[in-house]
Amino acid sequence: MLAQLAAEFPDFWPEWSIPYWLMSILRVVGGLVAVLLPAGGIVYLFLFKMMSFMQSRLGPMEAGPYGSMQLLAEVGKWMQKEDLAPENADLRIYRMAPLIVLLSTFLLIVVVPFGPQAWFTNFETGIFYALAVGSVSVLGILIAGWSSANKYSLLGGLRAGGQLIAYELPMVLATLGVVIQAESMNLNRIIEVQNTGEIFGIGWFGNPFIITQFVGFLIFMIAVQAELTQAPFDMPIAESELVSGYMTEYSGFRFLIFFIAEFATAGVFSFIAAALFLGGWGVPFEWFGWDNLGDVAWWMNFVGPVIMFTKMFALVGVIMWVRFSYPRFREDQLQTFAWKVLIPLALANTAVTAILKVVL
Question: Is the pTM of this model over 0.85?
């Protein structure tokens, strides 16, 4: 787009470029904002307020207006607590585990596009990268459970490992239908196809894949719920059985890192779901978004992040609504649901999508 503008208006287009070091700093700052800001917003809006109203109570109200500063108070409290470790723990990897879990979230956000040029990386195989990196957190959870020298932590880690492995497959299969329809694994290309596509020859609404891939969307969101170990898939934590599962022995800022990673990952997975099924940073381009060169308007790089955050919070609201509404599965029910229901359904959805793609 910049090359087109330069060719169209050679006398008015300045010759400038952002230094690599400055671009690197901007990307780091942008990554921190894209991970930590949603995490804080999710905790305040859904954990403090939505859950409270669902349970007919006000929630935190004393720290700041309507309890808006409660999150800062919680962070300050955990930062002040002593960093303890069990006597028999493997200290080196015990302390490393929370960082691995949080690092996987930061590695995941780099593939999310927020506008036509507002992205950290523009991988041609972006969705493949996202699904691969999303599995890294399993290693951190297994390490946390094993290195704690606690039987409850070990059980929680093993449960988490089995659960996340089981639900990785339906998540991957759910995205195959999107990849087949878009004929690309590049997330920006997938977003473009949805916003420029047509349904039955009508282009005004675009072609958001949540319509044609609704089954895949449901499978993907269920798998995300399980990946996040949110109820009804919270067996790895299961306070009534395992105290706090793999997090039992953690305190202070290391427990805080697990806490941040949980909600930050919910936000990042919702960003990816918005890109795959809800049109991502765009709205149907027949509404607005085109410039006079027939390309995506430059100002979509500023409007796009707002649209992405709006869709992300809507999807996280669904995740939290399910979390606060349903009881926990038994371990056998969880595995049965993944292997006997979700995976066959995802395979059928992929097969039907492939057949229709060839026929139509």
Answer: yes
